[in-house]
Amino acid sequence: MFTCLQINKDENGYQTTRAELNEDTLTEGNVLVKVQYSTLNYKDALAITGKAPVVRSFPMIPGIDFSGVVEQSDSADFKVGDKVILNGFGVGEKYKGGLSQKARVNSDWLIPLPENFSSLQAMSLGTAGYTAMLCIIALEKQGLTPQSGKILVTGATGGVGSFAVKLLSLMGYTVVAATGSAAQHDYLKALGASEIIDRAELSEPGKPLMKEQWAGAIDSVGSHTLANVCASINYGGAVAACGLAQGMDFPASVAPFILRGVSLLGIDSVMRPKADRIEAWQKLSELLPAGEMDSIVNIIGLEQAITVADDLLKGNVTGRVVVDVNQ
């Protein structure tokens, strides 16, 4: 038996509760992992609250990522005792997820935990840190360097945004952070932002082309914000888009792309090939020494995730929420 969060749906809507289940209820797979930590991401919050149709089948264990130790393995790639990480692949949506003391998954979805990371450090980064690094790698492959100019990060106080600000700063970039919270300016400056702008400057309908301001950007917001960011990128610059907090729409024109040569790079973290995952996690382990992100991490117990999910959707959560599934 193991403890988890479980989502059910009936005529009264969604119900998320703490549950005690048998291993036979887990998804089919060739590796059984004893989960140590998971996280609470925006998608997890949508699933737990039922605010969006994230979950594809019921009952479901939420949690799109986790770290832990292999307990059983029928895979040549992993043996009992190996420390592993999982991000995405429909876990917590189509397959039983990480907000649980046990998870059975396909070995192709797992990667080894970097040697100089603990399981807690890995989930302190989680899908948010991993996605932020995928965005940075994409921008650099497009030719951006610290000498290219300022890099804008939207949604800067969120999980992806917080890590993007910190990582870019550590890599020598000049970071401009966009936020709607004046109370978070000190937080963003502590992460490494050299300049802070009000997100309202970007969130309303704008012009097809605006003043060139940034060499590149990482956007987790979408909608009018992404359109205005693209319209304000320097000639030849690039935008890595990885989220839709403002909306899924993209009310833009082709002008930035055909008149300024701007590149819009879509960042998917869910189905990313294993080589890309390993590259991103290795870079994270090299950049972030132990304790580097402690100030933005809040550790909660499994059942607390139910109430914190609602706070996250309301914008009342800053930084990262790590879930100790054994609390």
Q: What are the SSEs and their pairings?
A:
Blueprint: E1 2-10, E2 13-21, E3 31-39, H1 42-49, E4 65-73, E5 83-87, E6 102-105, E7 110-112, H2 119-141, E8 151-153, H3 159-170, E9 175-179, H4 185-191, E10 195-198, H5 200-203, E11 214-219, H6 223-231, E12 233-241, H7 255-259, E13 263-266, H8 274-287, E14 297-301, H9 304-313, E15 320-324
Parallel strand pairs: 8-9, 8-11, 9-10, 11-12, 12-13, 14-15
Antiparallel strand pairs: 1-2, 3-4, 3-6, 3-15, 4-5, 5-7
Helix pairs in contact: 1-9, 2-3, 2-8
Account of the protein in words:
- It is a single chain.
- With 327 residues, this protein is an alpha/beta fold.
- It has 2 domains: 2-116 and 292-324, Alpha-Beta Complex (Quinone Oxidoreductase, Chain A, domain 1); 127-266, NAD(P)-binding Rossmann-like Domain (Rossmann fold).
- It is built from 9 helices and 15 strands.
- Strands 3, 4, 5, 6, 7, 14 and 15 form a 7-stranded mixed β-sheet that branches. Strands 10-9-8-11-12-13 form a 6-stranded parallel β-sheet, sandwiched between helices. Strands 1-2 form a two-stranded antiparallel ribbon.
- Strand 1 and strand 2 form a beta hairpin.
- Helix 2 (119-141) crosses helix 3.
- The longest helix has 23 residues, at 119-141.
- The mean pLDDT is 94.
Structure keywords:
327 residues; alpha/beta; Quinone Oxidoreductase, Chain A, domain 1; Rossmann fold; 2 domains; seven-stranded mixed β-sheet; 15 strands; 28% helix; 27% strand
